[in-house]
Amino acid sequence: MRQDSQLILRSVYACAIRTLIDKMLSTNGGKVRIYMRAIADYITNEPNLLSFSKGDIIQIINRNDGTLPMEQNSEQWLYGRIGNHFGNLPANYVEPLNSFGQVTIIASFFFLLLR
Q: Which InterPro entries does the entry link to (predicted)?
C-alpha cells in the first residue's frame, strides 16, 4: 500500500478494531506516544544521532530538555527511535504525523484506516 493512502475494510468488529488500534498506537502505560514522519533523509555515522530516510515513521521520546515537542524550529533537536535504534535528530527534518493509524468509523461495519 502506498504511503498516505486509505484502506476501507468491512467488518462487524469495526468498533472493536478501532478501539484496539487507538489503544496500541496512542498509549504506553498511560503516556501519549508521539510519532513524526521524516521529510528528508538524514544519514549520519555519529553514534548519538539517529539516521533515517524520507518517509520513515519515528517515535519521539522527548526533547533533550526532557519535555515533549510542541513547536519546532530549525535549532531544535528531538530524541526518538525507529525500532531498536535510538538517537537525537534535527526537528526540521520531521513533521507531525496526525493521520497515521487514525481510524474513522464510516458505518457500524466499515472503518477507514489512514496510513
A: SH3-like_dom_sf, SH3_domain
- The answer for residues whose C-beta is within 8 angstroms of residue 91's C-beta and 6 or more apart is 69, 72, 73, 74, 76, 77, 78
CA nearest 60: which of 108, 14, 28? Answer: 28
C-alpha cell at 26: 496512542
Q: Could you read off the pLDDT of 26-76 as tens digits, one per residue?
A: 655 555 677 888 999 999 999 999 999 999 989 888 655 555 554 444 568
Sign, Cα dihedral of 87, 89, 93, 96: positive
77-85 CB contacts, 8 Å cutoff, 24+ apart: 78/36, 80/36, 80/50, 81/50, 82/50, 82/52, 82/56, 82/57, 82/58, 85/50, 85/51
The class (CATH top level) of 6-114 is mainly beta
